[in-house]
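Narrative progress, year one. The postdoctoral researcher (J.K.) led the effort to move from monomer predictions toward full complexes, under supervision of the PI. The following entry was the first complex the group processed end to end, covering 341 residues in total.
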Amino acid sequence: MAMKERLAKIREEVLEQIKTSESLERLNEVRIGALGKKGALTEILKGMKDVAAEDRPKVGQMVNEVRTELERALETEKEKLEDLARDAKLKSEVIDVTLPAVKNQVGHRHPNTIVQEEVERIFVGMGYEVVEGPEVEKDYYNFEALNTPKGHPARDEQDTFYINEDVVLRTQTSPVQVRTMEKGKLPIRMIAPGRVYRADEVDATHSPVFHQIEGLVIDKNITFADLKGTLAEFARELFGEETKVKFRPHHFPFTEPSAEVDVSCFKCGGKGCRFCKGSGWIEILGCGMVHPKVLTMSGIDPEEYSGFAFGVGLERITLLKYEIDDMRLLYENDVRFLKQF
Ligand code: DAH
């Protein structure tokens, strides 16, 4: 009977395909090819109408037997392939707990940041507010309002990056003084840390970008004695209890009188060493009493109010505090360097 032979052939072929399928995808294809809507076995069932009526039950039974057998074979093969896939996955996920761990490189706070935060902590402790100002600044705030008009010789000392005639990269944090005074909220006790820019060549003590911390106090009856006391306390907190300060007369356009401040060398205690170049003193900042003209330009009456200001070079202090002899180390950000602080 042709039907019987066709059935036997299909059975054999499909069993062979199952055995050699090797993957679950392929096995599924085999299943569809045999038992699917258009599968070989389904086609046979469709041909039942051509089978003589008396043979139909027998042929039907044979088809069902083959179907059941193939289904079983498919199921068995499926389980086998699934087992293999699971084993392979497990193998690929094996972790060798004896291998050395991969170390994550963690960065480190920059010494500048450490010192800036220390300075902020000291002044916040004295009731100061920490404020910020723009790095791209109007010529007016950077110079004019600080009593440094166009053509003033003090402009030469600060080689300025000009954006255009009226806009500069600030050469100092002092413009933040003016911006704070202009707001008109008195009294003022503020420090303003931030980046400043000067057209300098890079060397061990210069960089075109560096940092300053500005300080400003405006109130009634502020005197030079307040300035001295404040900076002496600042120096003691930053460099140690034994530190002495010395005020040397100096000139800044925006303060009158002006001074530069030296601290006693914290390396030799003032006796003189290589660190302080034998003098026993190290210069750390500029300061003075805010010039009446500067107060007036910012809308503050110099008859009623007075104040002092100071400007510290952050890198300078960082280099001193950590005895680093080349400023360039601060900008290379080599973690092996930074980790020492
Ligand atoms: N701005 C000055 C500079 O960059 C530093 C300075 C000196 C700031 C005296 C001040 C000050 O506030 O009173 O050289």
